[in-house]
């Protein structure tokens, strides 16, 4: 029997030609707080196609609602502890719960996400030749004995504590990144992110800025955990996203600290929130959790020199922007 001529198969090459000059970017954890702001910024560039992979543990579709259905955007429900087979040019690997109450909720899952999740994303980067950026954390410095913390400081971390699933998990993730870089030539970037705040943080996620703002709006006491003299340095999310993109696009592997060096005690933070949002509210001292770092402030010399980056938004300017978002979500207008 004579073979009938088959129509040509749709060629994936023809499809990719259409996007030839486009950059295909995967953002893991893109439905979360920092990830969704990063997606907003990446989508502004018409040459970027953005794929988000997220298991929605702490993130939500709501954070990405303006992009769902957009031709350059794709959202995949995916857990990074499982294999992911796609084609991309860059990977921003953020997937991991960041708030202590969520990462302590299922610590074994947290460490799997950090270790197996990062291994999988490195395997993907290796297979397709993509550049990969890991969002590590200032928690790799533990309860630091050096202040402020430069990237060269190796940290003071409890390997068996309740925070270890997160901080030791991120330390292994950094090790994996460097071993894939040295052993397989993968292009890596590591950001050590310090406390970040801004719109879209989970309202009840237990982190200090979100707690204080929600409490002030609801007229509840601001819960300062003892002793209250512990310090943190808070970076507004737009500055953070700017730093992450500069790191990805630059020539340095890192690790590079990205954070705001403005340092506050938790009592000072509570006083600022009280003054800006609700002067009538009470400040209450409450119990703390184990292994709470006593001080934290980034040394950002490397970010300034290598990325030309430093934060622009001061805490007192960022807090009202977050207040606006929280009021909208809590349904409590300003004059109430
Ligand atoms: P977030 O909890 O809002 O976002 C994390 C996202 O990852 C969520 O959308 C969540 O659903 C997703 N996720 C969690 N586990 C996953 C898994 N196994 N598979 C797929 N998706 C998963 O947190 P964030 O504040 O946006 O933090 C983002 C990244 O930045 C994290 O890697 C975090 O460790 C790092 N970081 C954040 C801060 C901060 O202050 N926010 C500080 C240091 C480091
Ligand atoms: N992997 C992935 N997507 C890919 C390629 C690999 O998720 O496109 C995962 C895969 O599950 C593997 C891990 O990445 O377990 C590490 O991959 P690698 O090739 O480095 O190691 P191997 O497969 O040899 O263990
Ligand atoms: N904290 C506080 N009140 C709260 C929540 C947190 O005083 O309602 C303190 C906490 O003890 C810690 C600091 O704020 O010293 C930052 O805590 P967070 O959980 O926001 O971040 P991390 O400990 O990861 O820096």
Automatic annotation (TrEMBL):
<comment type="similarity">
    <text>Belongs to the NAD(P)-dependent epimerase/dehydratase family. UDP-glucuronic acid decarboxylase subfamily.</text>
</comment>
<keyword id="KW-0210">Decarboxylase</keyword>
<dbReference type="InterPro" id="IPR036291">
    <property type="entry name" value="NAD(P)-bd_dom_sf"/>
</dbReference>
<dbReference type="Pfam" id="PF16363">
    <property type="entry name" value="GDP_Man_Dehyd"/>
</dbReference>
<comment type="function">
    <text>Catalyzes the NAD-dependent decarboxylation of UDP-glucuronic acid to UDP-xylose. Necessary for the biosynthesis of the core tetrasaccharide in glycosaminoglycan biosynthesis.</text>
</comment>
<dbReference type="GO" id="GO:0005737">
    <property type="term" value="C:cytoplasm"/>
</dbReference>
<dbReference type="GO" id="GO:0048040">
    <property type="term" value="F:UDP-glucuronate decarboxylase activity"/>
</dbReference>
<dbReference type="InterPro" id="IPR044516">
    <property type="entry name" value="UXS-like"/>
</dbReference>
<dbReference type="GO" id="GO:0042732">
    <property type="term" value="P:D-xylose metabolic process"/>
</dbReference>
<feature type="domain" description="NAD(P)-binding">
    <location>
        <begin position="26"/>
        <end position="320"/>
    </location>
</feature>
<dbReference type="GO" id="GO:0033320">
    <property type="term" value="P:UDP-D-xylose biosynthetic process"/>
</dbReference>
<keyword id="KW-0963">Cytoplasm</keyword>
<keyword id="KW-0456">Lyase</keyword>
<protein>
    <recommendedName>
        <fullName>UDP-glucuronate decarboxylase</fullName>
        <ecNumber>4.1.1.35</ecNumber>
    </recommendedName>
</protein>
<dbReference type="GO" id="GO:0070403">
    <property type="term" value="F:NAD+ binding"/>
</dbReference>
<dbReference type="InterPro" id="IPR016040">
    <property type="entry name" value="NAD(P)-bd_dom"/>
</dbReference>
<keyword id="KW-0520">NAD</keyword>
<comment type="pathway">
    <text>Nucleotide-sugar biosynthesis; UDP-alpha-D-xylose biosynthesis; UDP-alpha-D-xylose from UDP-alpha-D-glucuronate: step 1/1.</text>
</comment>
């Amino acid at each position: 029997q004579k073979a009938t001529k088959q129509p040509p198969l749709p060629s994936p090459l023809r499809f990719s030609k259409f996007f030839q000059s486009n950059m295909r970017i995967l953002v893991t954890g893109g439905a979360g707080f920092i990830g969704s702001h990063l997606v907003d910024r990446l989508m502004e560039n018409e040459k970027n196609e953005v794929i988000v992979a997220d298991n929605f543990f702490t993130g939500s579709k709501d954070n990405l609602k303006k992009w769902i259905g957009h031709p350059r955007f794709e959202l995949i429900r995916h857990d990074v502890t499982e294999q992911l087979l796609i084609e991309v040019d860059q990977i921003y690997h953020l997937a991991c719960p960041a708030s202590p109450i969520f990462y302590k909720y299922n610590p074994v899952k947290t460490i799997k996400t950090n270790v197996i999740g990062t291994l999988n994303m490195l395997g993907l980067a290796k297979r397709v030749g993509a550049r990969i950026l890991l969002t590590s954390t200032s928690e790799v410095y533990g309860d630091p004995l050096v202040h402020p913390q430069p990237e060269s400081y190796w940290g003071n971390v409890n390997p068996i504590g309740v925070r270890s699933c997160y901080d030791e998990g991120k330390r292994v993730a950094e090790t994996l990144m460097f071993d894939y870089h040295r052993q397989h030539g993968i292009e890596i970037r590591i950001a050590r992110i310090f406390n970040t705040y801004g719109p879209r943080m989970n309202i009840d996620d237990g982190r200090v800025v979100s707690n204080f703002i929600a409490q002030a709006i609801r007229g509840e006491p601001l819960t300062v955990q003892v002793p209250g003299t512990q310090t943190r340095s808070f970076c507004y999310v737009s500055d953070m996203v700017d730093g992450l993109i500069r790191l990805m696009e630059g020539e340095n592997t890192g690790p590079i600290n990205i954070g705001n060096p403005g340092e506050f005690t938790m009592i000072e933070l509570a006083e600022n929130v009280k003054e800006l949002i609700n002067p009538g509210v009470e400040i209450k001292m409450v119990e703390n959790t184990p292994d709470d770092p006593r001080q934290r402030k980034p040394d950002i010399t490397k970010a300034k020199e290598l990325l030309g980056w430093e934060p622009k938004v001061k805490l007192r300017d960022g807090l009202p922007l977050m207040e606006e978002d929280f009021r909208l979500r809590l349904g409590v207008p300003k004059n109430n």
